[in-house]
Amino acid sequence: MKLGIIGAMRQEIETLLEKMEDKTFRNIAGSAFCGGKLEGLDTVVVQCGVGKVNAALCAQILCDCFGVTHLVNTGIAGSLCAELDIGDLVVSRDAMYHDMDCHVVNYPVGQVPGMDVLAFPADEMLIRCAFEAAESVHPGHTRVGRVASGDQFVADQAQKETIIRVTNGLCTEMEGAAIAHTAYRNGIPFVILRAISDKADHSAEVDYPTFEMLAAHRCAEVTTAMARRLRDAEG
Ligand code: ADE
Questions:
Q1: Ligand 1 pocket by C-beta < 6 Å: which residues?
Q2: Who's near 169: CB < 8 A, 6+ residues apart?
């Protein structure tokens, strides 16, 4: 197994980089890809930058240039459901776009024309592993469900409600579905792991800067616990 870990922002990957051993760096398309061992597991960590295009191109580079066999997207997200509070964790059952909209030509919102799924399904083994890792870090505060992604920072109640209606997602962020889409097209298992930094409504303007660091570091801690479990499973 070779794990590719993608985070959009520095805060989302910095503690992972500190924990990596036998590090080597390669710069491709403006991102530094850090290869090495995370908890003894063969891993490549990259900060992709914000948004779907940055995320997809880094995921494809991980596949083509590093031969990763599994993809994990770690980071923060806005909550779309009342039960998910700041600091809580979401593991993707699947991921879809909330801003792909070809309804005028008869596709449901979210559907990419030409793709055979509306939402990209995450891998069962990785879901289980991410859930157990999340529960080990923050017991009783993890939910498994849909991640809704788009190129928008959501900080408005009406927009939040539209995204909930369209996707039925648990949280919203800006990269997960693009990584899921790339993984799907490459036939590679993936999971998205997100910690809640805000409620994706008017309160997000205040909450996001306050809780960004806490949520990003919690998610990195869970990702590390996940790598440990995957290494143990490898034997
Ligand atoms: N990442 C963290 N919070 C977010 C939000 N409210 N919208 C989009 N991405 C986010």
A1: 76-78, 153-155, 172-174, 197-198, 200, 204, 208
A2: 80, 96, 98, 145, 146, 147, 148, 163
User: In this structure, are residues 118 and 65 in contact, taking their beta carbons and an 8 Å threshold?
Assistant: no
Residues contacting 163, CB < 8 A, separation 6+: 80, 98, 148, 150, 154, 169, 172, 200
The one-letter code for the residue type at 193 is: L
Q: Find the catalytic residue in 88, 173, 175, 198.
A: 198
Residue 198 is among the residues annotated as catalytic for this protein: yes
Pocket test for ligand 1, best of 12, 147, 173, 214 (most atoms within 8 A of CB): 173
* Separation of alpha carbons 193 and 198, rounded Å: 15
Q: Looking at 70-227, which runs of residues are DSSP E strands?
A: 70-79, 89-97, 120-121, 142-149, 171-173, 190-198
Pairing mode of beta strands 89-97, 41-47: unpaired
- Residue whose CB lies within 8 A of the most ligand 1 atoms, among 11, 48, 73, 76, for a mutation test: 76
Residue 91: the pLDDT is 98
The dihedral sign for the CA sequence 84, 38, 8, 128: negative
> Alpha-carbon torsion 200, 203, 206, 207, what sign?
negative
Give strand ranges (E) for 103-166.
120-121, 142-149
Return averaged pLDDT per consecutive 10 residues of the chain, 235 residues in all. Answer: 98 96 98 98 98 98 98 98 97 98 98 98 98 98 98 98 98 98 98 98 92 95 98 92
